Amino acid sequence: MINRTVQNVSKALEGITNGMTIMLGGFGLCGIPENSITELVKLGVNNLTCISNNAGVDDFGLGLLLQEKQIKKMISSYVGENDEFERQMLSGELDVELTPQGTLAEKCRAAQAGFPAFYTPAGYGTEVAEGKETREFNGKMYVLEEAFKADFAIVKAWKGDTAGNLIFKGTARNFNPCMCGAAKITVAEVEELVPAGELDPNQIHIPGIFVNRIFQGKDYEKRIEQRTVRSKN
């Protein structure tokens, strides 16, 4: 039986060096690989290009890497919750590539499927399309977008087994699944790790073939960016 488990987060991230391109799953602060981000800060790797839905907040998520100035370029679709991100972007310290959210997801999925590029109508006629090939299909204009090329994809799942099969929970089932297998090496951290064969095959979202390393994380905070509650009457 294939066993993709590694002992801890340090083993999982072996091989990450300065200047690499890294995908990180999650939506806002939901479903982010908290243990792996903390380890990246400890490793001190810099000049990173990070591909993620957003850049976290000032003191959590990718915001921790931004605080240490470890990110050279950020490729995201939403970046509105991070003051340090804004400061670095406006000062020119950080290169930012804003990408429509659907396009960001599809660029991951295309890399996962082995497609080099695809056409999308999103962004045509805007700055997003500048310098890119455009083409008309059935009277509508499309922009050619290339699939991402990443060294590592780091994702977070609710449950996984030793063979690398993954199950995601709730909103964490967003950018995490499409990033699996979309890089040279995919690392999955999970809240619960079980022996291979224990997961219901009908419930698995990502098969282990898309995962290279898996480990059980710990001490998840699972923060909420904007908590909105009903006022008492």
From TrEMBL:
The organism's place on the tree of life at top rank: Bacteria
Keyword Transferase belongs to the record: yes
MF term (GO), any: transferase activity
Keywords: Transferase
Keyword Metal-binding: no
Pfam families found in the cross-reference section: CoA_trans (PF01144)
Family in the record: Belongs to the 3-oxoacid CoA-transferase subunit A family.
Protein name: CoA transferase subunit A
